[in-house]
Amino acid sequence: MKPVTALIVILSAVMSAAAHADTSDRFAMGGWIEKFQPAIDQANATGELFRIRGHCQSNCTLFLGVRNVCVERSARLLFHAGHGRGPNRHVINSGSTQRMLNAYNAKLRQYVTANGYLEKLEFSTISGARIIDEFGYKECPRGG
Length: 144
Description:
The protein is an alpha/beta fold and 144 residues long. The protein is built from five helices and six strands. Helix content is 39%, strand content 13%.
């Protein structure tokens, strides 16, 4: 294969993968881990870019732990403590809370811990721009 042809094939594959990147869109309002874990596992297995954009609350923030995650500057991430189900819905669950903390990089983990974001059930918001600029997450390429 000629070098120019090889380069075109490689660029096509890269652009195709980027075009099929998953997003946080369908997970925006949070939910239970069973909804999120398959998407997290899939993104980590393929190494495909996973794009956090728009509104992303609760377990949606687990996507910050995907190995090839990017965040759009305009995203809004909402954090709170993990909690139980049913009658325990308003009871903080340390296991769920720890799962969320484990998904965050060290800088973000330290910040949300120091500011009590995961010690309460009310939402605390961090903009995508801050997630990128202050906590070192990769900014998503434009046009995706």
